[in-house]
Amino acid sequence: MKIALIAPPYPLEEIPSPPLGLTYIAAVCEAAGAEVRILDYIVRGYSEAKIKAELKAFGPDVVGTNSVTMNFKRAAGILRTVKQADPGVITLMGGPHVSFDSEAVLTLYPEIDIIIKGEGEATLAELLGVIHDRAAWPGVLGIAFRENGRIIATGPRPLIQDLDALPRPARHLLPMARYQALGYPVSIITSRGCPNQCIFCLGRRMVGQKVRFRSPTLIADEVQDLIAMGSSYINIADDLFTASKPRVRALCNEFLKRNLDVHWSAFSRVNTVDVETLSLMKSAGCHSVSFGIESGNPEMLKRVKKGITIDQARKAARACQEAGIRGHASFMVGLPGENFETMQDSRALQNELGIESAYHFLAPFPGTEVREKIADYDLEILTQDWDQYNANKSIVRTSALSAKDMDDFVHGAHGRVEESWEALKQKYADKAATPEEQMQVGGFYRMEMIFKLLSQDVIEDYSVYPLNKDTALESLCKTISDLTGLDREFVEFNITDLIGKGYIRAVENRGETCFSWAHHV
After folding, report:
1. Which of 27, 112, 202, 253 is the most buried (most CB within 10 A)?
2. Alpha helices, DSSP H, located in 377-463
3. What band does 1 get if pLDDT is binned at 50, 70 and 90?
4. Is residue 252 a part of any domain in this protein?
5. Tens digits of residue pLDDT in 365-384
6. Please, are residues 295 and 332 in contact by the beta-carbon 8 Å criterion?
């Protein structure tokens, strides 16, 4: 069996990383004996013609993808193109959006044959054994599909209790050098599950309320493999990394015992950390911890079932400062009952904590309590356009606030930061920046340039020059400078660096030089 898995395009501002869920699914497919390819359009350009050509060359029996709400429509559109190219191929989609909106998805999108709901590895492993036998589909727990005009949803599948039994994510199928060139972290999981009940979150419903842990030994093995692949910047993507302090200690001690040269970040909660734990995490390579604080108003925290207090937020911020670790507080605007006073409470707490912070807007995703029980809350959802569910603009209103009120508040809260950033970019352009400022702004422009090269297939489209390597490099950099509007000297410095680090390869052959992205470093 041949299986193609598609990573749909994802915007740069959302900090794309190698698609972890898809690589777990790919590993399951490989373990079932399938020939698997991942068509990654996060760090490559996408077009209908391109995917049709790549699928024709591979000839898959099954094509699958996953999505979150904000890129669901794009992912569904890609599967529509897949079906147009080969009506006989079986198409699958997984992820949180389709898991909780499966009936509407199957009704509106006939190009999707099967939805895999919730945790997908065990479901897919069973499904692959009967995927060409439609009569057997109803016996596979955890899926939804159409049958004679009706939507069939099989029962929920029990969660995987032994996470150590999962195969290692199949990152060898990804163009990892492209992600490494961007400089973004590689995500791993060390646990699944979330014991909390926040009304705006899908974590507990997707991966269960009871936290299941991977063994520290296997986690450290995976991290060692990533370091060997050239990836030493890691994000631990658990819903709650610090759910168990003994487990955190065991994992950090394993990292320290192996002397792993790794820098990592994690998601936590303010009621699950202390100075001792954070200090140990830092010694094991953790550089930053993110907390979802959401609101500075105590009543709001109760309303959304956050399960934390303002005083716990203060203590967590102080613990980060004492441990010498970067703390980041995330606040949410647009929660039920939001008003000018509650937003000002958040602003006051943000200023008091003295750690890095940012605001996001409530996005009432399918499957969240706030969406399913919206009649119980002071909240109105203003759009069903999933493209707008990116938490970057208000898509709700309350009895006290319009969407514009919320947008204006966040713009004001971020305004000084944005003004400072624009001033810094101007200082950089005027060649008046300090070395540290040059590094900060130059790093931003470098990342933007690389993402443009990747997502627009610039290296692929301008790869061959009938010249020696040095002259060809000058021509390539001139092309990139013309396309991006960036300074030629800046482009030359960064392209030379990318070649030096092995992310881009330059091969001379019979009087020609060909440039290409490396697959792995």
Report:
1. 112
2. 403-429, 435-455, 458-461
3. very high
4. yes
5. 999 999 999 999 999 999 99
6. yes
In angstroms, the CA 226 to CA 495 distance is: 24
Confidence of residue 468 (pLDDT cuts 50, 70, 90): confident
Residue 329: how many other CB atoms lie within 10 Å: 25
| DSSP classification of residue 242 | G
The half-sphere exposure of 310 on its side-chain side, counting CA atoms within 13 A, is 14
Domain count, the chain: 3
In a shared domain, residues 307 and 451: no
In a domain, 164, yes or no: no
Task: Decide if 269 contacts 308 (C-beta within 8 A).
Answer: yes
Same-domain pairing of 110 and 221: no
Closest CA to 170 of 274, 42, 53, 31: 31
Report, in angstroms and rounded to the nearest whole number, the Rg of the chain calculated over CA atoms: 24
Tell me the β-bridge partners of 332.
360
pLDDT digits (tens, 9 = 90+) for 14-33: 888 999 999 999 999 999 99
Structure confidence at residue 11 as a pLDDT band (50, 70, 90): confident
Find the domain containing 308 and state its range: 185-361
**Cross-strand pairs, 286:** 264
Answer whether 281's CB lies under 8 Å from 289's CB: yes
Residues 6+ apart with CB under 8 A from 4: 36, 37, 38, 39, 54, 55, 58, 60, 62, 63, 64
DSSP 137-194: GGGSTTEEEEETTEEEEPPPPPPPS-GGGSPPP-GGGS-HHHHHHHTPPEEE-SEE--
Residue 296 has pLDDT above 80, yes or no: yes
pTM score, two decimals?
A: 0.95
Residue with the two structure tokens 């598609």 = 6
